[in-house]
Amino acid sequence: MEVEHRSVDDVVIIQARGEITYGKGSDVLLRGKVDTLLAEGHRKLVLDASGITYVDSAGLGQLAQMHANAMQKGAVLKLLGISKRLRDLLAATRLLGLFEVFESEDAALASFTGTRAS
């Protein structure tokens, strides 16, 4: 798994590529990045999941844990570009309702300011 981040104003976009699975350390790598950003004081986070190719049950648990950690810190974690498969998995496990999900980066960024993306 590869995890990078960049800032757009006060929003941090976390770009993840690869699998979020148990045993490969990818779940820990992604969660570690989110935890580090929260510890640095970032409160507006968007996980760009368009590069995530596979998520197992442990990965779903990590997504839920990252959401919970963000909320505990007074932060928001939103999802961007999730695949149909990931959307279906989140829905089946009733985790989809935890997240605001966006198809475009502009829409995700605009959601933090309350303005609509064009």
Feature tags:
118 residues, alpha/beta, Transcription Regulator spoIIAA, five-stranded mixed sheet, globular
Describe this structure in words.
By secondary structure, this protein is an alpha/beta fold. It has a single domain (2-106), classed as 2-Layer Sandwich (Transcription Regulator spoIIAA). Helix content is 41%, strand content 31%. The protein contains four helices and five strands; from the N terminus they run ββαβαβαβα. It has a five-stranded mixed sheet with strand order 1-2-3-4-5. Helix 1 runs parallel beside helix 2. The longest helix has 16 residues, at 57-72. The chain is globular, with a radius of gyration of 13 Å. The model has no long low-confidence stretch (mean pLDDT 91).
SSE diagram, text form:
Layout lengths: L1 E7 L2 E10 L5 H14 L4 E12 L1 H16 L3 E5 L3 H9 L8 E2 L2 H9 L5
Helix pairs in contact: 1-2
Rg from alpha-carbon coordinates: 13 Å
Largest sheet at a glance?
Answer: 5 strands, mixed
Order of the strands making up the biggest sheet: 1-2-3-4-5
Known CATH architecture: 2-Layer Sandwich
Structural class: alpha/beta
Number of domains: 1
Name of the CATH class: Alpha Beta
Question: What characteristic shape results from the CA principal axes?
Answer: globular
Count of alpha/pi helices = 4
Q: Let me know the CATH homologous superfamily.
A: STAS domain
Mean pLDDT: 91
Oligomeric organization of the protein chains: single chain
Poorly predicted sequence stretches spanning 5 or more consecutive residues: none
Gap between N and C termini: 32 Å
Tell me how many strands there are: 5
The CATH topology name reads Transcription Regulator spoIIAA
What level of helicity do the residues show?
Answer: 40-55%
